[in-house]
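Continuing the series of single-chain predictions for the mutant panel. This is the parent chain; the variants come on the following pages.
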Amino acid sequence: MRIALCLHISLTYGGGGEKWAWTVAKYLSRKGHQVEIFALPYTPHGRRAVDFSELVKILDGIPYRERWHHTIHSDISYMFYNPLAYLFFRCKSKKIAGIHSNVYFMPRIPPLTYGLPAILSRVMYKSMGIADLSIYDAIHIMNKAIKVRHRKVYYIPNFVDTEVYKPLINKRDKFTVLYVGRPSWQKGWDVFLTLANVMRSKYNDAEFIWVGGTSDKLNDVKGLGYVTNDHELAKLYSSAHVTVYPSRADNFPLVMVESLACGTPVLTTRIPAHLSLDLPLLYADNVYDFSQKIVNLYREWKKDPSHLISSSVRLRKAAENYDSKNVLPIFERMLKESC
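Parent structure:
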């Protein structure tokens, strides 16, 4: 089967959606399908976390084309949904729209710092979303909290390779709080910075680490840059005592599942996209609440360092519900049924 994966954002952006695309492409290629990836030469805020030489290594021979307009010859085209995105990808095959962005379903318009293109996409979806989605032969959603109106909707969640994401090394000697993601309003970056500032002013043996941005030290946060190697990222999750994910809006937050698979608890927000996953998460409602929960975890660790480790088996078992071995065959079946 000839499969086209079409993205309205360059793979070099290096976000969760882009990582999903190259992982799925490699899986389908191993299954004997002819896979090509097509993308637009656009990245939000001009961010390119993955350079092209690194991307070539990641794709490992899978054809990748990046331009403003594509003519595609495939048996099925899977398009990352954005209003009118199909105008950039001309094809005669059947089309599946994959909902990978949460901006269309936010309860309110995000601030301008979120990015004008994303805000305009939300406005367009609110005004023409039902008609726009009807162009597609099927819709793929990753989270049961996402509701769309269409004649054919597939619910297939995000996934994690639990053979890669697993407890690999011991916890650090210092109490370590990990943040994995972009420094954006959506991901709650401001909450993490405030949390780090508050904690570091009281406890000098706590360390705050950021993966997904620069490799500089930022106030009370140590940046490790963007980590493309899954094995290295799994070691970072494993070594942390807690992963903080104060996201304000989400589709399917892979960070949380990756962390749990490595046996590390996750402190996050109580939003529908998180609650719907039925995972053993820790919740906080504001900066003060996040601070209190982290302090409680810190005190438990000081009292008994093995306390957090003892829960790792339970956390990992919950994450196994989203193992790639279970999810990816279902995605492949969707493509075959829609072809």
